[in-house]
Amino acid sequence: MITVDVQTPLGILRGARLEDKSVALFKGVHYGEDTTRSNRLMPPRPAQFWQGVREALN
């Protein structure tokens, strides 16, 4: 697999692409903020921006 970086509205994600370029993989991407503890049973909150490259390989 080949690593690939993509720019999203929230920051840069690093994933992997099959060598034939048919599929790109991005694992563990957060689409919203944590929903545990004080946020439990509350409306979802959008994910926050991040600096640098966020690994999405695992």
Task: Explain the layout of strands and helices.
Blueprint (H helix, E strand, L loop, with lengths): L1 E7 L2 E7 L6 E2 L27 E3 L3
Parallel strand pairs: 2-4
Antiparallel strand pairs: 1-2, 2-3
List its salient traits.
58 residues, mainly beta, four-stranded mixed β-sheet, 0% helix
Largest sheet: 4 strands, mixed
Anisotropy-based shape: elongated
As a percent range, the share of helical residues equals under 10%
Total number of helices: 0
Would you report the number of β strands? 4
Sketch the topology as an H/E string, one letter per element: EEEE
> Which residue ranges are poorly predicted, with pLDDT under 50 across at least 5 consecutive positions?
none
Q: Mean of the pLDDT scores?
A: 92
The fraction of residues in strands falls at 25-35%
What is the first-to-last residue Cα distance? 13 Å
Estimated radius of gyration? 14 Å
